[in-house]
Design brief:
- The protein has 14 helices and 24 strands.
- It is α/β, with parallel strands linked by helices.
- It folds into two domains: 205 residues, Enolpyruvate transferase domain (UDP-n-acetylglucosamine1-carboxyvinyl-transferase, Chain); 206 residues, Enolpyruvate transferase domain (UDP-n-acetylglucosamine1-carboxyvinyl-transferase, Chain), CATH 3.65.10.10.
- Strands 22-23-1-24 form a four-stranded mixed beta sheet, with helices on one face. It has a four-stranded mixed beta sheet with strand order 2-15-17-16.
- Strand 22, helix 12 and strand 23 form a beta-alpha-beta unit.
- Helix 6 packs parallel to helix 7, helix 8 runs parallel beside helix 10 and helix 10 runs parallel beside helix 12.
- It is elongated and about 65 Å long.
- It starts with a strand and ends with a strand.
- The model has no long low-confidence stretch (mean pLDDT 97).
- Bound molecules: ligand EPZ.
Protein backbone atom coordinates (compact mmCIF):
# COMPACT_ATOMS: atom_id res chain seq x y z
CA UNK A 1 0.00 0.00 0.00
CA UNK A 2 1.20 3.53 -0.71
CA UNK A 3 0.31 6.98 0.60
CA UNK A 4 0.80 10.46 -0.81
CA UNK A 5 2.21 13.21 1.42
CA UNK A 6 1.68 16.86 0.58
CA UNK A 7 2.98 20.02 2.21
CA UNK A 8 0.51 22.81 1.47
CA UNK A 9 1.14 26.39 0.39
CA UNK A 10 2.93 26.04 -2.94
CA UNK A 11 1.10 27.67 -5.89
CA UNK A 12 1.16 25.54 -9.07
CA UNK A 13 3.22 27.12 -11.84
CA UNK A 14 4.34 25.85 -15.24
CA UNK A 15 3.08 23.48 -17.93
CA UNK A 16 1.47 20.04 -17.70
CA UNK A 17 0.55 17.57 -20.45
CA UNK A 18 -2.90 16.06 -20.19
CA UNK A 19 -3.14 12.32 -20.91
CA UNK A 20 -5.60 10.27 -22.94
CA UNK A 21 -9.11 9.88 -21.59
CA UNK A 22 -9.73 6.86 -19.33
CA UNK A 23 -13.45 6.90 -20.10
CA UNK A 24 -12.86 7.03 -23.85
CA UNK A 25 -10.08 4.43 -23.85
CA UNK A 26 -12.08 1.79 -21.96
CA UNK A 27 -14.95 1.37 -24.48
CA UNK A 28 -12.63 1.91 -27.47
CA UNK A 29 -10.21 -0.84 -26.39
CA UNK A 30 -13.20 -3.12 -25.80
CA UNK A 31 -14.52 -2.38 -29.31
CA UNK A 32 -11.57 -4.46 -30.61
CA UNK A 33 -13.71 -7.50 -29.69
CA UNK A 34 -15.95 -6.68 -32.65
CA UNK A 35 -13.44 -7.56 -35.36
CA UNK A 36 -10.48 -9.73 -36.38
CA UNK A 37 -7.07 -8.21 -37.08
CA UNK A 38 -4.80 -5.79 -35.25
CA UNK A 39 -6.33 -2.53 -33.97
CA UNK A 40 -3.87 0.20 -32.95
CA UNK A 41 -4.71 2.72 -30.23
CA UNK A 42 -2.47 5.74 -29.53
CA UNK A 43 -2.39 8.08 -26.50
CA UNK A 44 -3.72 5.36 -24.19
CA UNK A 45 -3.19 6.43 -20.55
CA UNK A 46 -1.19 4.15 -18.25
CA UNK A 47 -3.81 3.59 -15.54
CA UNK A 48 -4.90 0.73 -13.28
CA UNK A 49 -8.27 0.62 -15.05
CA UNK A 50 -6.57 0.25 -18.43
CA UNK A 51 -4.43 -2.59 -17.05
CA UNK A 52 -7.61 -4.23 -15.74
CA UNK A 53 -9.38 -4.07 -19.09
CA UNK A 54 -6.33 -5.42 -20.93
CA UNK A 55 -6.27 -8.36 -18.50
CA UNK A 56 -9.97 -9.00 -19.10
CA UNK A 57 -9.60 -8.81 -22.89
CA UNK A 58 -6.70 -11.26 -22.81
CA UNK A 59 -8.71 -13.71 -20.66
CA UNK A 60 -11.35 -13.56 -23.40
CA UNK A 61 -8.67 -14.62 -25.89
CA UNK A 62 -7.60 -11.30 -27.43
CA UNK A 63 -3.91 -10.71 -28.20
CA UNK A 64 -2.50 -7.49 -26.74
CA UNK A 65 0.75 -5.62 -27.31
CA UNK A 66 1.72 -2.46 -25.43
CA UNK A 67 4.50 -0.07 -26.45
CA UNK A 68 4.46 3.09 -24.30
CA UNK A 69 1.10 4.82 -24.88
CA UNK A 70 0.33 2.68 -27.93
CA UNK A 71 -1.76 -0.45 -27.41
CA UNK A 72 -2.48 -3.00 -30.16
CA UNK A 73 -5.31 -5.53 -29.79
CA UNK A 74 -6.38 -8.42 -32.06
CA UNK A 75 -9.46 -10.48 -31.19
CA UNK A 76 -9.05 -13.18 -33.85
CA UNK A 77 -8.55 -15.76 -31.14
CA UNK A 78 -11.67 -14.87 -29.18
CA UNK A 79 -12.48 -18.13 -27.40
CA UNK A 80 -13.98 -17.29 -24.04
CA UNK A 81 -17.21 -15.41 -23.50
CA UNK A 82 -17.04 -15.17 -19.71
CA UNK A 83 -15.97 -12.05 -17.76
CA UNK A 84 -15.30 -13.36 -14.23
CA UNK A 85 -16.40 -11.70 -10.98
CA UNK A 86 -12.88 -11.06 -9.66
CA UNK A 87 -12.12 -8.92 -12.72
CA UNK A 88 -15.48 -7.18 -13.12
CA UNK A 89 -15.78 -6.23 -9.43
CA UNK A 90 -12.45 -4.36 -9.69
CA UNK A 91 -13.53 -2.36 -12.68
CA UNK A 92 -17.25 -2.00 -13.33
CA UNK A 93 -16.75 -0.67 -16.86
CA UNK A 94 -15.96 -4.32 -17.69
CA UNK A 95 -19.71 -4.62 -18.22
CA UNK A 96 -18.97 -2.98 -21.60
CA UNK A 97 -17.81 -6.37 -22.95
CA UNK A 98 -21.40 -7.62 -22.77
CA UNK A 99 -22.67 -6.01 -25.99
CA UNK A 100 -19.62 -6.83 -28.12
CA UNK A 101 -19.49 -10.47 -26.93
CA UNK A 102 -23.15 -11.11 -27.78
CA UNK A 103 -22.67 -9.36 -31.12
CA UNK A 104 -19.51 -11.30 -32.00
CA UNK A 105 -19.79 -14.69 -30.20
CA UNK A 106 -23.60 -14.75 -29.90
CA UNK A 107 -23.30 -15.24 -26.14
CA UNK A 108 -21.78 -13.71 -23.02
CA UNK A 109 -21.54 -14.51 -19.33
CA UNK A 110 -20.54 -11.39 -17.45
CA UNK A 111 -20.47 -10.92 -13.69
CA UNK A 112 -22.89 -8.32 -12.40
CA UNK A 113 -20.60 -5.41 -11.40
CA UNK A 114 -22.26 -4.79 -8.04
CA UNK A 115 -22.33 -1.37 -6.43
CA UNK A 116 -19.47 0.91 -5.64
CA UNK A 117 -18.69 3.69 -3.15
CA UNK A 118 -20.62 6.35 -5.05
CA UNK A 119 -23.83 4.43 -5.58
CA UNK A 120 -25.74 1.25 -6.46
CA UNK A 121 -24.98 1.79 -10.15
CA UNK A 122 -27.42 -0.74 -11.59
CA UNK A 123 -27.15 -1.94 -15.19
CA UNK A 124 -30.85 -2.50 -15.79
CA UNK A 125 -30.85 -0.11 -18.77
CA UNK A 126 -27.99 -2.03 -20.41
CA UNK A 127 -29.94 -5.29 -20.05
CA UNK A 128 -33.30 -3.83 -21.13
CA UNK A 129 -31.64 -2.46 -24.28
CA UNK A 130 -29.98 -5.78 -25.09
CA UNK A 131 -33.31 -7.57 -24.68
CA UNK A 132 -34.87 -5.04 -27.07
CA UNK A 133 -32.31 -6.20 -29.65
CA UNK A 134 -33.55 -9.77 -29.21
CA UNK A 135 -31.01 -11.16 -26.74
CA UNK A 136 -32.25 -13.60 -24.12
CA UNK A 137 -31.07 -12.43 -20.70
CA UNK A 138 -30.76 -14.57 -17.57
CA UNK A 139 -29.46 -13.47 -14.18
CA UNK A 140 -27.90 -16.46 -12.40
CA UNK A 141 -25.47 -16.73 -9.50
CA UNK A 142 -24.43 -13.08 -9.77
CA UNK A 143 -23.83 -13.28 -13.52
CA UNK A 144 -25.66 -12.00 -16.57
CA UNK A 145 -26.02 -14.71 -19.21
CA UNK A 146 -26.99 -13.22 -22.57
CA UNK A 147 -27.34 -14.92 -25.95
CA UNK A 148 -28.74 -14.23 -29.41
CA UNK A 149 -28.29 -15.95 -32.74
CA UNK A 150 -28.17 -12.57 -34.43
CA UNK A 151 -29.25 -9.33 -32.75
CA UNK A 152 -32.01 -7.43 -34.54
CA UNK A 153 -32.17 -3.66 -34.73
CA UNK A 154 -34.88 -1.95 -32.69
CA UNK A 155 -35.89 1.33 -31.01
CA UNK A 156 -34.40 1.68 -27.51
CA UNK A 157 -35.36 4.43 -25.05
CA UNK A 158 -33.06 5.05 -22.04
CA UNK A 159 -34.99 6.16 -18.94
CA UNK A 160 -31.68 7.81 -17.89
CA UNK A 161 -29.01 9.05 -20.31
CA UNK A 162 -26.52 6.35 -19.25
CA UNK A 163 -22.97 6.75 -20.61
CA UNK A 164 -21.81 3.13 -20.61
CA UNK A 165 -25.36 1.99 -21.36
CA UNK A 166 -25.26 4.03 -24.58
CA UNK A 167 -21.79 2.66 -25.37
CA UNK A 168 -22.75 -0.97 -24.64
CA UNK A 169 -25.84 -0.84 -26.86
CA UNK A 170 -24.00 1.03 -29.60
CA UNK A 171 -21.43 -1.78 -29.77
CA UNK A 172 -24.16 -4.44 -29.67
CA UNK A 173 -26.10 -2.76 -32.49
CA UNK A 174 -23.29 -2.24 -35.01
CA UNK A 175 -23.45 -5.91 -36.11
CA UNK A 176 -27.21 -6.34 -35.59
CA UNK A 177 -29.58 -6.88 -38.50
CA UNK A 178 -31.24 -3.63 -39.54
CA UNK A 179 -31.61 -0.24 -37.90
CA UNK A 180 -31.32 0.54 -34.19
CA UNK A 181 -32.28 3.94 -32.77
CA UNK A 182 -31.07 4.86 -29.27
CA UNK A 183 -33.20 7.62 -27.71
CA UNK A 184 -32.23 9.74 -24.70
CA UNK A 185 -28.64 8.63 -25.35
CA UNK A 186 -25.70 10.05 -23.44
CA UNK A 187 -23.97 12.91 -25.29
CA UNK A 188 -20.54 12.71 -23.62
CA UNK A 189 -17.42 13.23 -25.79
CA UNK A 190 -16.39 9.67 -24.91
CA UNK A 191 -19.58 8.37 -26.57
CA UNK A 192 -18.75 10.42 -29.67
CA UNK A 193 -15.16 9.11 -29.69
CA UNK A 194 -16.43 5.52 -29.57
CA UNK A 195 -18.92 6.17 -32.41
CA UNK A 196 -16.18 7.73 -34.55
CA UNK A 197 -13.93 4.72 -33.89
CA UNK A 198 -16.70 2.26 -34.80
CA UNK A 199 -17.47 4.22 -37.99
CA UNK A 200 -13.79 4.05 -38.95
CA UNK A 201 -14.11 0.27 -38.45
CA UNK A 202 -16.92 0.23 -41.02
CA UNK A 203 -19.97 0.80 -38.82
CA UNK A 204 -22.78 3.14 -39.82
CA UNK A 205 -23.62 5.34 -36.82
CA UNK A 206 -25.26 8.77 -37.04
CA UNK A 207 -26.18 11.29 -34.34
CA UNK A 208 -23.51 10.52 -31.71
CA UNK A 209 -23.25 13.58 -29.46
CA UNK A 210 -26.99 14.14 -29.66
CA UNK A 211 -29.67 12.32 -27.67
CA UNK A 212 -30.82 10.31 -30.71
CA UNK A 213 -28.27 7.92 -32.22
CA UNK A 214 -29.12 5.71 -35.22
CA UNK A 215 -27.07 2.61 -36.04
CA UNK A 216 -27.52 0.74 -39.32
CA UNK A 217 -26.19 -2.79 -38.68
CA UNK A 218 -23.43 -4.17 -40.94
CA UNK A 219 -22.23 -7.75 -41.40
CA UNK A 220 -18.63 -7.20 -40.33
CA UNK A 221 -16.11 -4.58 -39.23
CA UNK A 222 -12.38 -4.17 -39.89
CA UNK A 223 -9.52 -3.13 -37.58
CA UNK A 224 -8.65 0.52 -37.05
CA UNK A 225 -5.88 2.84 -35.89
CA UNK A 226 -7.05 5.74 -33.69
CA UNK A 227 -5.75 8.15 -31.06
CA UNK A 228 -7.59 8.49 -27.72
CA UNK A 229 -9.05 11.95 -27.01
CA UNK A 230 -7.66 13.97 -24.08
CA UNK A 231 -9.03 13.31 -20.60
CA UNK A 232 -11.45 16.15 -19.83
CA UNK A 233 -11.65 15.20 -16.15
CA UNK A 234 -7.87 15.21 -15.73
CA UNK A 235 -7.76 18.64 -17.40
CA UNK A 236 -10.68 19.85 -15.27
CA UNK A 237 -8.86 18.62 -12.17
CA UNK A 238 -5.62 20.47 -13.04
CA UNK A 239 -7.48 23.65 -14.02
CA UNK A 240 -9.29 23.63 -10.69
CA UNK A 241 -6.04 22.95 -8.81
CA UNK A 242 -4.43 25.93 -10.56
CA UNK A 243 -7.32 28.18 -9.53
CA UNK A 244 -7.26 26.77 -6.00
CA UNK A 245 -3.55 27.44 -5.39
CA UNK A 246 -3.49 30.95 -6.94
CA UNK A 247 -1.33 29.31 -9.54
CA UNK A 248 -0.40 30.01 -13.13
CA UNK A 249 -0.62 26.83 -15.22
CA UNK A 250 -0.79 25.99 -18.91
CA UNK A 251 -2.42 22.65 -19.74
CA UNK A 252 -1.15 21.10 -22.98
CA UNK A 253 -2.85 18.66 -25.40
CA UNK A 254 -6.39 19.31 -24.14
CA UNK A 255 -9.70 19.54 -25.91
CA UNK A 256 -11.03 22.86 -24.49
CA UNK A 257 -14.51 22.46 -25.94
CA UNK A 258 -14.99 19.33 -23.79
CA UNK A 259 -14.44 21.49 -20.68
CA UNK A 260 -16.88 24.33 -21.35
CA UNK A 261 -18.98 23.86 -18.19
CA UNK A 262 -15.91 23.66 -15.91
CA UNK A 263 -14.23 26.64 -17.60
CA UNK A 264 -17.42 28.68 -17.25
CA UNK A 265 -17.66 27.91 -13.52
CA UNK A 266 -13.95 28.57 -12.89
CA UNK A 267 -14.31 32.00 -14.53
CA UNK A 268 -17.28 32.77 -12.27
CA UNK A 269 -15.11 31.74 -9.31
CA UNK A 270 -12.59 34.39 -10.42
CA UNK A 271 -10.01 32.45 -12.41
CA UNK A 272 -8.47 34.05 -15.49
CA UNK A 273 -8.63 31.48 -18.33
CA UNK A 274 -7.32 31.72 -21.87
CA UNK A 275 -7.78 29.09 -24.57
CA UNK A 276 -4.98 28.81 -27.14
CA UNK A 277 -5.70 25.94 -29.57
CA UNK A 278 -5.21 22.67 -27.65
CA UNK A 279 -3.83 24.53 -24.60
CA UNK A 280 -5.70 26.07 -21.68
CA UNK A 281 -3.99 28.70 -19.51
CA UNK A 282 -5.37 29.19 -15.99
CA UNK A 283 -4.43 31.88 -13.48
CA UNK A 284 -5.92 31.54 -10.04
CA UNK A 285 -7.63 34.52 -8.33
CA UNK A 286 -6.40 36.10 -5.09
CA UNK A 287 -9.90 35.64 -3.73
CA UNK A 288 -12.16 32.77 -4.84
CA UNK A 289 -15.82 33.71 -5.31
CA UNK A 290 -18.39 31.22 -4.03
CA UNK A 291 -20.70 29.86 -6.75
CA UNK A 292 -23.31 27.13 -6.98
CA UNK A 293 -23.01 24.04 -9.16
CA UNK A 294 -25.42 21.29 -10.16
CA UNK A 295 -24.04 18.13 -11.75
CA UNK A 296 -25.79 17.11 -14.97
CA UNK A 297 -25.23 14.84 -17.96
CA UNK A 298 -22.95 16.34 -20.63
CA UNK A 299 -22.79 19.18 -21.61
CA UNK A 300 -23.78 20.09 -18.04
CA UNK A 301 -21.28 20.29 -15.19
CA UNK A 302 -19.68 16.81 -14.88
CA UNK A 303 -20.31 14.77 -11.74
CA UNK A 304 -16.69 13.58 -12.03
CA UNK A 305 -15.60 17.17 -11.23
CA UNK A 306 -17.92 17.66 -8.25
CA UNK A 307 -15.50 16.61 -5.49
CA UNK A 308 -12.68 18.71 -6.94
CA UNK A 309 -14.90 21.78 -7.18
CA UNK A 310 -16.05 21.30 -3.61
CA UNK A 311 -12.45 21.84 -2.45
CA UNK A 312 -12.35 25.14 -4.37
CA UNK A 313 -15.59 26.22 -2.73
CA UNK A 314 -14.35 25.17 0.73
CA UNK A 315 -11.95 28.16 0.73
CA UNK A 316 -14.12 30.53 -1.34
CA UNK A 317 -15.60 33.74 0.07
CA UNK A 318 -19.21 33.06 1.15
CA UNK A 319 -21.68 30.21 0.89
CA UNK A 320 -22.03 27.87 -2.10
CA UNK A 321 -24.46 25.05 -2.87
CA UNK A 322 -23.49 21.89 -4.75
CA UNK A 323 -26.25 19.57 -5.90
CA UNK A 324 -25.25 16.09 -7.10
CA UNK A 325 -27.98 14.82 -9.41
CA UNK A 326 -26.22 11.83 -11.00
CA UNK A 327 -25.13 9.53 -8.15
CA UNK A 328 -26.90 9.00 -4.83
CA UNK A 329 -23.80 8.74 -2.66
CA UNK A 330 -21.13 10.97 -4.10
CA UNK A 331 -20.37 13.09 -1.03
CA UNK A 332 -18.08 10.60 0.69
CA UNK A 333 -15.16 13.02 0.43
CA UNK A 334 -17.05 15.54 2.61
CA UNK A 335 -16.25 13.88 5.95
CA UNK A 336 -12.53 13.84 5.14
CA UNK A 337 -12.59 17.47 3.99
CA UNK A 338 -14.33 18.42 7.24
CA UNK A 339 -11.48 16.80 9.16
CA UNK A 340 -9.25 19.29 7.34
CA UNK A 341 -11.39 22.17 8.56
CA UNK A 342 -13.91 22.55 5.74
CA UNK A 343 -17.35 23.81 6.79
CA UNK A 344 -19.78 21.64 4.81
CA UNK A 345 -23.34 20.58 5.60
CA UNK A 346 -25.10 17.86 3.64
CA UNK A 347 -28.84 17.64 3.14
CA UNK A 348 -29.90 14.86 0.73
CA UNK A 349 -28.10 15.44 -2.53
CA UNK A 350 -27.28 19.02 -1.61
CA UNK A 351 -24.04 20.15 0.04
CA UNK A 352 -23.78 23.64 1.55
CA UNK A 353 -20.22 24.86 1.72
CA UNK A 354 -19.30 27.88 3.84
CA UNK A 355 -15.87 29.11 2.77
CA UNK A 356 -13.19 29.14 5.49
CA UNK A 357 -9.92 31.11 5.44
CA UNK A 358 -7.80 27.97 5.26
CA UNK A 359 -7.81 24.18 5.57
CA UNK A 360 -5.39 22.39 7.88
CA UNK A 361 -3.29 19.38 6.90
CA UNK A 362 -4.36 15.99 8.32
CA UNK A 363 -4.12 12.25 7.67
CA UNK A 364 -7.10 11.41 5.38
CA UNK A 365 -8.35 8.35 3.51
CA UNK A 366 -9.35 8.11 -0.13
CA UNK A 367 -12.63 6.29 -0.82
CA UNK A 368 -13.13 6.56 -4.57
CA UNK A 369 -11.33 7.88 -7.62
CA UNK A 370 -12.47 11.49 -7.75
CA UNK A 371 -12.72 11.85 -3.96
CA UNK A 372 -9.02 10.95 -3.75
CA UNK A 373 -8.21 13.70 -6.27
CA UNK A 374 -10.11 16.18 -4.09
CA UNK A 375 -8.12 15.18 -0.99
CA UNK A 376 -4.83 15.68 -2.86
CA UNK A 377 -6.06 19.12 -3.94
CA UNK A 378 -7.05 20.00 -0.38
CA UNK A 379 -3.53 19.05 0.70
CA UNK A 380 -2.08 21.48 -1.87
CA UNK A 381 -3.54 24.46 0.01
CA UNK A 382 -3.86 23.14 3.58
CA UNK A 383 -1.63 24.60 6.27
CA UNK A 384 0.92 21.93 7.19
CA UNK A 385 1.18 18.36 5.96
CA UNK A 386 -1.57 16.08 4.59
CA UNK A 387 -1.14 12.33 4.16
CA UNK A 388 -3.63 10.60 1.84
CA UNK A 389 -3.97 6.82 2.25
CA UNK A 390 -5.59 4.17 -0.01
CA UNK A 391 -4.36 6.01 -3.09
CA UNK A 392 -4.91 2.91 -5.23
CA UNK A 393 -8.24 4.64 -5.90
CA UNK A 394 -6.31 7.54 -7.41
CA UNK A 395 -4.14 5.36 -9.65
CA UNK A 396 -7.25 4.00 -11.35
CA UNK A 397 -7.84 7.28 -13.14
CA UNK A 398 -4.80 9.56 -12.86
CA UNK A 399 -1.42 8.73 -14.38
CA UNK A 400 1.41 9.70 -11.97
CA UNK A 401 -0.53 12.67 -10.62
CA UNK A 402 2.05 13.34 -7.91
CA UNK A 403 4.81 13.60 -10.54
CA UNK A 404 2.75 16.02 -12.62
CA UNK A 405 1.94 18.13 -9.55
CA UNK A 406 5.57 18.09 -8.37
CA UNK A 407 6.53 19.27 -11.86
CA UNK A 408 4.28 22.28 -11.22
CA UNK A 409 6.01 23.11 -7.92
CA UNK A 410 3.88 21.17 -5.42
CA UNK A 411 5.66 19.66 -2.41
CA UNK A 412 4.26 16.17 -2.89
CA UNK A 413 5.62 12.63 -2.78
CA UNK A 414 4.47 9.01 -2.81
CA UNK A 415 5.64 6.87 0.10
CA UNK A 416 5.22 3.28 1.25
CA UNK A 417 2.40 3.22 3.80
C1 LIG B 1 -19.80 6.75 -16.59
O1 LIG B 1 -20.26 5.81 -15.64
C2 LIG B 1 -18.37 7.09 -16.20
N1 LIG B 1 -17.55 5.88 -16.27
C3 LIG B 1 -18.36 7.66 -14.78
O2 LIG B 1 -17.01 8.04 -14.48
C4 LIG B 1 -19.24 8.91 -14.76
O3 LIG B 1 -19.29 9.42 -13.44
C5 LIG B 1 -20.65 8.55 -15.24
O4 LIG B 1 -20.58 7.95 -16.56
C6 LIG B 1 -21.55 9.77 -15.33
O5 LIG B 1 -20.99 10.72 -16.19
C7 LIG B 1 -17.12 5.45 -17.48
O6 LIG B 1 -17.39 6.05 -18.52
C8 LIG B 1 -16.26 4.22 -17.49
P1 LIG B 1 -24.18 6.22 -16.04
P2 LIG B 1 -21.64 5.01 -15.93
O7 LIG B 1 -24.63 4.90 -16.53
O8 LIG B 1 -21.83 4.82 -17.38
C9 LIG B 1 -27.97 5.29 -13.39
C10 LIG B 1 -15.07 8.16 -13.19
O9 LIG B 1 -14.83 8.74 -12.12
N2 LIG B 1 -28.09 4.07 -14.19
O10 LIG B 1 -24.17 7.38 -16.98
O11 LIG B 1 -21.66 3.84 -15.03
C11 LIG B 1 -26.71 5.31 -12.52
O12 LIG B 1 -26.95 4.64 -11.29
C12 LIG B 1 -16.36 7.39 -13.36
O13 LIG B 1 -14.30 8.15 -14.19
C13 LIG B 1 -29.17 3.23 -13.96
O14 LIG B 1 -30.02 3.48 -13.10
O15 LIG B 1 -22.72 6.08 -15.42
C14 LIG B 1 -26.45 6.78 -12.34
O16 LIG B 1 -27.27 7.26 -11.29
C15 LIG B 1 -17.19 7.38 -12.09
N3 LIG B 1 -29.29 2.09 -14.71
C16 LIG B 1 -26.92 7.40 -13.66
O17 LIG B 1 -27.76 6.41 -14.27
C17 LIG B 1 -28.37 1.76 -15.68
O18 LIG B 1 -28.55 0.71 -16.33
C18 LIG B 1 -25.81 7.72 -14.62
O19 LIG B 1 -25.01 6.56 -14.73
C19 LIG B 1 -27.28 2.62 -15.89
C20 LIG B 1 -27.17 3.77 -15.14
Amino acid sequence: MENIIIEGGHPLKGEVKIGGSKNAALPILISALLTDGWNTYHNVPDLKDIQSIKLLLSTLGAKIETDGDTVRIAADGLCNYEAPYDLVRKMRASILVLGPLVARLKKARVSLPGGCAIGARPINLHLKGLARLGASIDLKHGYVEASANRLKGNEIYFDIATVTGTENLMMAAVLAEGMTVLRNSAREPEVVALAETLNQMGANIKGAGTSIISIEGVTSLHPVSVSIIPDRIESGTFMTAAALTQGNVRLLECEPEHNEAVIHKLKLAGADIKIEGQSIWVKGPDEIASIDIKTLPYPGFPTDMQAQFMVLMSVAKGLSIISETIFENRFIHVSELKRMGADITISGNFAMIKGVPALSGAPVMATDLRASASLIMAGLIAKGVTEVSRIYHLDRGYEAIEKKLAGLGAAIKRVKA
